[in-house]
Amino acid sequence: MKTRGFTLLELLVAISVLSVVSVIAWRGLDSLVATRERLEPEVDETRAMLVAFGQMERDLSQVANPAFLGLASSPVNVRPVDGAMMIEVARVAVAVPDRATEVQTVYYRVVDGTLVRQATPPLPYFQPSSSEAIENARLIGNVRSMDVRVWRTGVGWVPAGDGAESAATPATPGTPAPTGRNQPAPGIEVTLTRTDGRTYRRVFLVSA
């Protein structure tokens, strides 16, 4: 029985087809890698934004009850510091097994283009903390500014920092806390403006 192999022309055609398929596959893979490299920074930024807003939401959901802890003013205070807005939250610290309930103060502010969360150590009661004891966490970079509005029942959203919110300070023993003044706003709106002009807005409910 006579066997027949491939001719030179058939081999050349097969090699040409494989070459074309290889070029198409390489271009597809190169395009996929380029797209991934282009989207990776945006994915990282989106992840950082979600983490920052998620942490802010947790802090505001654990706001200390002013009546229970005897605070003379609101546990959520928004005011300008060094020309930029700062959010100050007096919150109940994360529970630790076999330990009594502790409290801490958390600050959100933009420092050198970065949204920073600063937190005092958990303590049995509110008291001033040294700058060395405050924990600093860098959340989002390339932030130009942070704008905050608060919700006032019967009025709507109003700019923060007009004196309506005051820092959480212990009340004088035997003196009842001022009615209404120590209650936090039911909600706040935070708007972050990036250096590239993009803005991110989130509304948070305040639980106390």
Instruction: Specify the helix fraction band.
Output: 25-40%
Number of helices: 2
Termini separation comes to 93 Å
User: What would the average pLDDT be, to the nearest integer?
Assistant: 80
Radius of gyration: 28 Å
**Structural class, from helix and strand content?**
alpha+beta
What is the 3D shape? Answer: elongated
| Regions with little confidence, pLDDT below 50 for 5+ residues | 163-179
H/E topology pattern? HHEEEEEEEEE
Number of extended strands: 9
Estimate the strand proportion: 25-35%
Strand order of the largest sheet: 1-2-3-4-5
Query: How many domains, as an integer?
Result: 1
Characterize the largest beta sheet: strand count, sense, and whether it forms a barrel.
5 strands, antiparallel
Can you describe what's shown?
The protein has 208 residues and is α+β, with helices and mostly antiparallel strands. It has one domain. 28% of the residues lie in helices and 31% in strands. It has 2 helices and 9 strands; from the N terminus they run ααβββββββββ. The strands form 2 sheets. The protein has a 5-stranded antiparallel β-sheet, with helices on one face. A 4-stranded antiparallel β-sheet has the order 7-6-8-9, covered by helices on one side. A hairpin with a 4-residue loop joins β8 (187-194) and β9 (199-205). It is elongated and about 100 Å long.
Give a quick summary of the entry.
This protein is an alpha+beta fold. It contains two helices and nine strands.
